[in-house]
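Structure (tokenized):
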């Protein structure tokens, strides 16, 4: 079973940047498609960004396109989310997820149901 640990959240002002990290416990990191989801107070958890098993494909929610960049480092078993030009509406708990071992290597999974493992979340708060 994969364990995922997020880090890098914090309190920043609008316009600032943060980089979230998601460290996976297993050497089979490359077997999983990965994703970042976020959940704001009183709202459902939503997809933010995803990356394929191969690392060659990525997909973003419209509201973060051009500001967020997802990447993965296979040597470190770690996924990242670089978040630039942060806005107050980006405030949420950010979760990383892993799954999709049966999907083609180039598939980016955007639905929560496609992921099998979840981290505990890291809080991102953006003040106006």
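Design, position by position:
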């Amino acid at each position: 079973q994969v364990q995922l640990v997020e880090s890098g959240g914090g309190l920043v002002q609008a316009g600032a940047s943060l980089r979230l990290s998601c460290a996976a416990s297993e050497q089979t990191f490359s077997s999983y498609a990965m994703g970042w989801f976020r959940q704001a107070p009183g709202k459902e958890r939503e997809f933010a960004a995803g990356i394929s098993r191969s690392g060659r494909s990525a997909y973003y929610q419209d509201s973060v396109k051009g500001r967020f960049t997802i990447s993965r480092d296979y040597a470190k078993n770690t996924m990242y989310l670089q978040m630039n030009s942060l806005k107050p509406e980006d405030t949420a708990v950010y979760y990383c997820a892993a799954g999709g071992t049966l999907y083609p290597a180039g598939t980016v999974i955007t639905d929560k149901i496609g992921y099998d493992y979840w981290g505990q979340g890291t809080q991102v708060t953006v003040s106006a």
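Reviewer-requested clarification: Residues 33 and 53 are 4 Å apart (CA to CA). The two ends are 40 Å apart (CA to CA).
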